[in-house]
Amino acid sequence: MQTYLAYFDETGDDGATTASSDFFVLTSLYMSTDCWKDNFDKIRICRSELKQKFGLHISEEIHTKHLLSDKDPYRKYQWTGQQKQEIIIDYTKCIAGLDAKIVNVIIDKTKFHDEGYPVLENALKYNIQRIENDSKGEWNYLIITDQGRLAPMRKTARAIRAFNPIHSKFSDGYKNQPIQNMIEDILEKDSKESYFIQICDFVSYMVHLYYKTHYKKEPLPNRVGRVIDSIFVGRVLVTLEQNQILNLKASSNKHGIVIYPK
After folding, report:
1. Nearest-angstrom CA–CA distance, 220 and 251
2. What Å distances lie between residue 187 and 10, 122, 184, CA to CA?
3. pLDDT, tens digit, 9 for 90 and up, residues 97-108
4. How far, in Å, CA of 93 to CA of 10, rounded?
5. C-alpha angle 21-64-125 in degrees, rounded to nearest 5
6. Are the beta carbons of 17 and 93 closer than 8 angstroms?
7. pTM for the model
């Protein structure tokens, strides 16, 4: 059986209150191990071109929110707004050209008032379910995540191997459909050491901005709004969709974005 690697990262706070953020976005990027080397080489070439054009060092982590907000370590580059847009455009095209799939799950915390709601756990469960569905039992997968949330993610992943309730299409109840194709415990890797986790960071932040502007009809954060607008954000999502890297079967929602609670 073929094996896939699934990388995860998030945007927003995973607490159940809206004190720090109104919603939480968890993004996965998964690919066959057969495609890993080609995908890695594409990113290396992209990063080399970004260094030549904008001075961004190949080993410098791309943390999208900080880049757009002109925070360290990016302030030293003194990029103009136009240059930042060009970096985002080039990076988006690179991601869109990978042989991989992306799933985005949003937990909108404004839709519930339960401080015990398991934000991270549900976001992870819904994301893994989409990867599992996409596998159709034909390949297994190993999950790699950024540092910081490993313990609750491992606990959740282990739990849904035994109990994974899915709403039944034929009744008002649920059926247990345990996760079968996830192998090993979830592993942890520093995002500074992984181009693929950095891509998840980028996509999750862009989905965050898209949901904020196109669904919630809210303005962009002030610093970000000085560089890009909602139309620009929408074009990023369209580019990813048109190049078929978004798993559109993950949801009937536009761009395949999974949104809970429903």
Report:
1. 25
2. 16, 18, 8
3. 999 999 999 999
4. 21
5. 55
6. no
7. 0.95
